[in-house]
Amino acid sequence: MLDLGRTFLQSVERSPVALAIVDGDIRLTYAQWFDKVCHVAGGLAALGLGRGDHLLLVLQNRWEMATLHWACQFLGVVATPLNWRAKPDEVEYCAVDSGARAIVFEAVSADAVAGSERAQQMARIGVGEASTPQALPTGATTSFSDLLTAPPLDRDNPPLSGGPEDISLMLYTSGTTGKPKGVPRRHRQERAAALAHVAQNSYRRGERTLGVMPLYHTMGVRSLLAMAMVDGLFVCVPRYDSAAVLRLIASERITNLYLVPTLYHDMLAHPTFAQTDVTSVTKIGFAGAPMHDALLKRIDAAFKPELFVNHYGSSEVYTCTINQDAVAKPGCAGRAGINTRIGVVPLDATTPHPRIAAGQEGQIIADLAGDEAFDGYWNRPDADAKSLKGGWYFTGDTGYVDADGDLFVTGRVDDMIISGGENISPVDIESVLSLHPGVDEVAVAGLPDERWGQRVVAFVKRHATAGTGSQGSHTAAPVDAALLDAWCRTSDLVNFKRPRDYVFVQAIPKSPVGKVLRRCLVAGDYEPEPSLSKEQDSV
Could you say which enzyme class this protein belongs to (predicted)? Predict the structure, then answer.
């Protein structure tokens, strides 16, 4: 199997004059970008970085970040990206845990790097405004501009130090409980995942995508690699902004989008969407979180895509399942991807067998023998013991397989609500409530209850416009608990899953990549609507 350095060379050789990357005024063809990558790789090598060394990257989605990623692939250096919003203690932990030799940062992450003791002991590469010694109390030791002027790798015969078995990338999980876990991924695993992404999304040569999902997240990395596979264009979006994204879709004639549901929601809600030409977008993909029925229908109507893909996976096992017709069966995550096998076992299972019957909810597992699967966590035998069992990865996600053999992902094991002895998935309830025209966004969580153990509570962000009655009649007032309860009673939602309380909020708390943070809802860490207290509106 080819390594990722050779993979990038394929596109350079096939399509040297094709536009490869855009970031504001920066517009580079594959040949031009390769020249920059060779210089940057040469500069990293001059700093002493080589095969197996980790390079921490605390950057937004800018062309420098993408260039550094490819430079690492030629050198055999392990690209180790962190959230650019990381706090000093997070940078410190990852710097120590990875044993990184150097760190790259920009102005937005400069304070966090300055607050890390370990970061001050390594080479510090400043990008943009962070390039000057005055940018930090202790200063950047060099700049990205210096790397660009360093003696380059031999462009005609570049050294390819990273082989298929070498580590290409190490992502850190979000660490919602405890410290984040490093997920090292080999060149062969990353390449297999990118090839599968191309095939499963029916990408063609010359595709154009928005680099919206952060390059510290598996979705962002997949978009970057997939475009190189098809000699396509990667348009950098350093920080998500609906207006800017819509302008880029129209001006760059974007052909595919691969985003979390939250960003589609925000895009459709923007006032300029109706006036934006989005007809170039023919393929829609989403991952990272379930997409509720109402948003699914709105996206389909707005874009009318040829292909609408629900992708379910993780940093550890990139693709678990794929559904290439998400609208036909809302909520369905489909069947195992090209490089994967999956199963569903009891929630408390410690072995991959036996499996549970169709229709029964359990924990989703994936075969570690798949080409995309990782080998184990970085320096975390405790995490390996918890999640890697009998050659299978226990995802921590709940779901079931229906009578047709299709997977439905219902949430996280930790998010499961147990009320009166019944297991209740938040996703089922959210899907029903999302279809009410008075609901903009909704998240469901279990709050402690003396009698039931937990009670089902719906946190609702209302539409700014007036609500709609239970029979479809328009009302002057926004939707309230009584209307939503009536909506649930007339749906196919079984009674014990019906929310007992409703909390109306200004926003649903989410992670930087758009995942609902239910733990914040349970802890009361949210903003209620103005003039409302955090008391629940019970029904």
Answer: ligase
